[in-house]
Amino acid sequence: MNLHVTPEAALFYKEEMDLQEGDHLCLYVKLYGSSSAHPNFSIGVTKGDCGESSLSTTVEGITFYLDAQDQWYVAGYDLRVSLQDGEISFQLLEA
Fold first, then answer.
1. What is the CATH number of the domain that holds 50?
2. How many structural domains are present in the chain?
3. Where in the sequence is the domain holding 31, given as residue range(s)?
4. Least crowded by CB within 10 Å, which of 9, 28, 51, 75?
5. CA separation, residue 51 to residues 24, 26, 76 (Å)
6. pLDDT digits (tens, 9 = 90+) for 67-77
7. CA-to-CA dists, residue 42 to 23, 37, 61, angstroms
8. What is the spatial distance between Cα 28 and Cα 25, in angstroms, rounded to a whole number?
């Protein structure tokens, strides 16, 4: 399990959410939407801390992390956050 955030995605969040270097962005599982691995579940994003971190990476000065209670969502996968056609994309890729 790894968390990959592209520089383009990090810059998108910095601009859209007015993030500063050193800020944290929490990724969490929400009951809405869909993913290839988990129907009816998707990733949500909030600024700041939202719990204990299970996966994290720092890109463009922003620390992205997945809440530890949501580790089940990425078990056996790598989570890739990228920018595609001006929109954020969350992809679960087999690890």
1. 2.60.300
2. 1
3. 3-94
4. 75
5. 11, 8, 22
6. 889 998 888 99
7. 23, 10, 25
8. 10
